[in-house]
Design goal:
The chain is of the alpha/beta class. Helix content is 35%, strand content 20%. Mean pLDDT is 78; it is low at 1-10 and 42-59.
Length: 313
C-alpha cells in the first residue's frame, strides 16, 4: 500500500510529507531541549524495574542532574528530583558528558509509506534531526549510518557542526533518492552488522526504523550492541500497519508484504491481519524488555513535536 495524504501545517517543520528539505531538519535546533511526553515517560517508568545491569564501561562518577532527554537511560532517572519538581530528571555521570552518539536511520522501501500525515521515512529523518541537535547541545560527537534501498552513507563520529551537518545532509539526500525503486540490495541486518564495527564501546546508539525486516539475526546484532553501549529503539509506525479499518473491505485492497501479496476480501482476513500485527508487536516489545533495551514507538500520523513535550523548552 502507498496511500498518502500530504499535510502542510504552518506550526510544524514539515512541507510536503513525502520527502525532506534541509530547512526542515535545521529547524529542530530550537527544539533541542524537548523531552518525551509524560505518557511515553510513564510507559518507560513501568518497564524500568525489569532492566538489566548497567552498561559495561560506563563511568559511574556522579556529575550532575538535568532534565530528562530522549535516549537517556531510564535507569539513571533521579526519581527523588522528578517527584519534587514534577518534571523528569536524569543523573549524569562523568563519562557520559562527552561520548559518541551513533544513529542508524532506515529509509528503505518499507519506510516509504504514510496513510495520514507523512511518510515513515520523513518522520525518521525528523527524529534523527532532533536527536542530532540534542547530541550537539551535550557536546557529544555524532556519527552513524543512513541507508535506503540502494545506498548507504557511513559517517564516523565528529564533533561540532561538521558531524551534525554531514548527517542532516545525507538524510536529506537518501530520503529523496529512496523514492526510486530498484531491486533490493541493502537490508537492516547488513547495516546493523556495519554499525557494530563502527560503534565505539560506551556509546549512545539510536536505531530508527519500522523494523519490518527484524528477524533473529537482527535481534542478535542489537543485543550485541547493547552489551557495551546504551541502545535505544525508535520504531516508526503508521496506524494502518497495526489495524485495518472496516471500510477498507469495500476497496478491494491489495496488501503487499515481505511474505507475498494478496487482496483483502472479508472480515476474517481483516481480523487475521490485525491479529498478526498485534502478535508481532508484542513479540518485539517482549524481547526488548527482556534484554533491557529502551523501545519507543513514533507515529508517522502526527507531528513529531506533538509527540514530545513542547513545554520542556
Amino acid at each position: 500500500m502507498s496511500t498518502h495524504i500530504p499535510a502542510i501545517f504552518t506550526n510544524t517543520p514539515y512541507t510536503t510529507g513525502v520527502d525532506v528539505q534541509l530547512n526542515e531538519l535545521l529547524s529542530y535546533k530550537q527544539h533541542g531541549k524537548l523531552s518525551l511526553s509524560s505518557k511515553q515517560l510513564q510507559a518507560t517508568r513501568q518497564l524500568s524495574g525489569n532492566y538489566l545491569a548497567n552498561i559495561k564501561g560506563r563511568g559511574m562518577e556522579f556529575a550532575e542532574v538535568r532534565h530528562y532527554q530522549p535516549g537517556d537511560d531510564v535507569r539513571s532517572i533521579d526519581w527523588a528530583v522528578t517527584a519534587r519538581t514534577g518534571r523528569a530528571h536524569t543523573k549524569l555521570f562523568q563519562e557520559e558528558k562527552e561520548r559518541p552518539v551513533f544513529l542508524l536511520v532506515d529509509l528503505s522501501d518499507s519506510m516509504i509509506f504514510g496513510s495520514q500525515f507523512v511518510f515513515k521515512s520523513v518522520q525518521a529523518c525528523h527524529l534523527a534531526s532532533l536527536l542530532s541537535w540534542q547530541a550537539k547541545q551535550r557536546n557529544d560527537r555524532l556519527g552513524g549510518i543512513v541507508f535506503n534501498q540502494q545506498e548507504v552513507a557511513e559517517l564516523k563520529p565528529t564533533s561540532r557542526n561538521k558531524g551534525l551537518m554531514a548527517f542532516l545532509h545525507q538524510s536529506q539526500i537518501l530520503c529523496q533518492k529512496s523514492a526510486f525503486k530498484i531491486p533490493q540490495q541493502q537490508s537492516l541486518f547488513l547495516q546493523l552488522k556495519r554499525l557494530s564495527h563502527l560503534v565505539q564501546t560506551g556509546s549512545q546508539v539510536h536505531l530508527i526504523s519500522d523494523f519490518s525486516q527484524l528477524d533473529e539475526a537482527c535481534y542478535k546484532l542489537i543485543n550485541l550492541l547493547r552489551r557495551h553501549n546504551q541502545v535505544t529503539i525508535w520504531q516508526i509506525s503508521d496506524p494502518l500497519e497495526s489495524h485495518l479499518p472496516k471500510q477498507m473491505l469495500q476497496a478491494n485492497l491489495k496488501i503487499n508484504s515481505l511474505k507475498g501479496s494478496g487482496f483483502l476480501r472479508n472480515k476474517r482476513q481483516q481480523k487475521s491481519y490485525n491479529t498478526a500485527a498485534t502478535e508481532r508487536q508484542q513479540q518485539m516489545q517482549t524481547y526488548f524488555l527482556k534484554h533491557g533495551i529502551a523501545h519507543y514507538q513514533i507515529s508517522a500520523a502526527t507531528s513529531l513535536l506533538e509527540q514530545f513535550n513542547a513545554n520542556a523548552q
